[in-house]
Backbone:
């Protein structure tokens, strides 16, 4: 595939940043990759892994001349980094991110980004519980959806055609890494992710905490017998704590809304257990199997990433 | 390995029953395997798969002459099946089960089982979300714990030495399939499993239900973006509904106790989100990583079954 961008700048070399570096190189999507990490140590690791041709600890130095800048740091850092890089970005370049919340990203950056920069927030719905520059792999985005939330109205864009071209280029970049791309508003994104990702992570963290605090069951018993289901929650609950703190702080309303529904529903199940209502329990459990079947059919099960689907979507 | 039992009878050919059939054959733990399933169709499937040399639809016919009878049907069926098979079991034989709750099994069977039968309830903490006779595989129990809950006092046993020998034989049988064996009381088992298995399954079923009922997020969006965490819950929530109904009906007290703690803890997290208490959230999330590390170190992660450990435990 011909390069989509001449130079890309990846700010933050964690799981997602390092995976973008590897995938853009593997599929020839950029001629040059510049990276940025907070510490010299991570910069060296990234260079050793061949993730970028140049690494900087100062984001401002990493974005000069880049045609695409991708923020891959925790969302809580975006305002500071955005303020530092905005004046130095190349006119006509695109600024995107991979944050798990989107309205907060718009709020943090929309007043900072100059009018001659195309600001297109994004979120690849892909990941593992691993973090850091060594965690990345080039197939992370294959068969997974990437959600882009471009500004709802183009009236403030100096050139509508140019804005549309910038969006098309960014879509091609993600599709080149194997993703399917969907466009939605930031607020709808945040609602969808609250139920499909944020609340699931919160309850996984929560059950691990509940188990940790028990007096009647020892910690070693919890570990020994974790194969009964608990281990899956420990895996989900081992994701990067800084990233998840920022997600819950910045998607508060949608998370609290979904959490309210979750606890209401849990109360109903609790009541069915207390009253021995086997029929309700059976019906409730049986219905869940259909949802699972649809997840597997959609190729979103962890064991069935399906690269072929991504390319059918390229239109 | 020399056969531990001449003839074993497996009542119920689901995931666990069929895996025991395959493992006992593979490791030469029994000379003869008799199976029992509710329908002729399942019996034929089991015979086609080579799970047993004889299949019966009537449990009473399947236990005659067996040295070990293993109940692998949902716990809700045990009283009826126990009543049917008790008079026909061979004196001196062992009756065990693989149910996910243990006090309810003792309650259902202790008055039915004749004094000349060794009744040793058991629970292999192993499984997948699959069910049925085709789901079994011989390595399911490798590196996993099997909990046995023999009667607490031996005073009612006609011969204490014989009872101890029966327990040792059953332990050897599970270790022969690659398991580590632990002895505990039925009530303690139920408490441990409530937190490591039953409540995790309940909240997985619950979040799948919450997602299903949303109006603001479509079902297809839930499926499309499930890779953000939700898909793991759909997998857990696709386990056999009859089995799980019975678990919640029969381990009510321990489940309600653990669920109460879970919801209390969740309220605290909810409050931290509402008040923007990032420090508490970070600390809570960071601690979970240690639990994950210990699960992986203990070889209980799904990707790291470690057969070697099982044999170190054989003493």
Residues:
């Amino acid at each position: 595939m011909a390069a989509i961008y001449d130079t890309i700048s990846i700010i933050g070399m964690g799981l997602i940043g390092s995976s973008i570096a590897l995938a853009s190189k593997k599929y020839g999507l950029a001629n040059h990759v510049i990276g940025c990490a907070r510490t010299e140590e991570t910069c060296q690791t990234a260079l050793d892994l061949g993730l970028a041709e140049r690494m900087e600890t100062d984001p401002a130095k990493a974005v000069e001349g880049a045609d695409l800048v991708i923020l891959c740091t925790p969302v809580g850092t975006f305002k500071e980094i955005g303020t530092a890089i905005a004046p130095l970005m190349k006119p006509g370049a695109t600024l995107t991110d991979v944050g798990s919340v989107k309205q907060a990203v718009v709020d943090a950056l929309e007043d900072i980004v100059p009018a001659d920069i195309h600001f297109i927030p994004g979120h690849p719905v892909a990941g593992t519980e691993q973090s850091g520059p060594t965690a990345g792999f080039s197939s992370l985005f294959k068969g997974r959806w990437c959600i882009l939330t471009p500004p709802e109205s183009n009236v403030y864009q100096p050139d509508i055609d140019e804005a549309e071209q910038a969006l098309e280029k960014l879509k091609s970049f993600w599709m080149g890494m194997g993703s399917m791309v969907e466009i939605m508003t930031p607020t709808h994104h945040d609602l969808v992710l609250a139920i499909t990702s944020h609340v699931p992570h919160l309850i996984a963290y929560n059950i691990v905490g509940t188990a940790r605090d028990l007096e009647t069951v020892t910690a070693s018993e919890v570990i020994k017998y974790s194969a009964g289901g608990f281990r899956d929650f420990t895996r989900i609950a081992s994701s990067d704590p800084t990233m998840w703190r920022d997600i819950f702080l910045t998607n508060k309303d949608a998370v609290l809304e979904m959490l309210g529904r979750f606890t209401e529903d849990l109360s109903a199940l609790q009541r069915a257990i207390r009253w021995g209502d086997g029929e309700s329990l059976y019906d409730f459990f049986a219905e869940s199997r259909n949802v699972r079947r649809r997840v597997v059919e959609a190729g979103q099960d962890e064991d069935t990433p399906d690269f072929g689907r991504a390319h059918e979507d390229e239109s």
